[in-house]
Structure prediction request, 133 residues.
Amino acid sequence: MAELKTKATKEDAYAFIEKIPEEQRRKDALVIIEMMKKSTNSEPRMWGPAIIGFGDKVLKYPNGRELDWFKIGFSPRKANFAFYISSNIEEMAPSLKKLGKYKTGKGCLYINKLEDIDLRILKGMVDIGAKRK
Prediction:
């Protein structure tokens, strides 16, 4: 069975953020870190080269495979912020209607910049994701 490529590392999440060239993007990333820290009561940890995760959980697949993962996280990509807050983003449909400008993928929420969304709605979504087992 293939091994998961994205694993927790010992890299410093704040040092990673400092390398983001755009000042506003760095500021947004720090706001997101503080939001997720409060929701999970966990410190940020790097997962792979570009994901910042919070908390711990074990993913269990129907075939019995188990993987260590984070409860919630995000990646400050060049084009947008990718949020990993739910395994099924459609479950958050009521919140998404009020969020603002975003896109979704299979399990991700994509936001270009924080000024495009209602931060209170995002915080509520983050809180829900943090409480999931």
User: Anything to note?
Assistant: Residues 13-131 form a domain with the Aspartate Aminotransferase, domain 1 fold (CATH 3.90.1150.200).
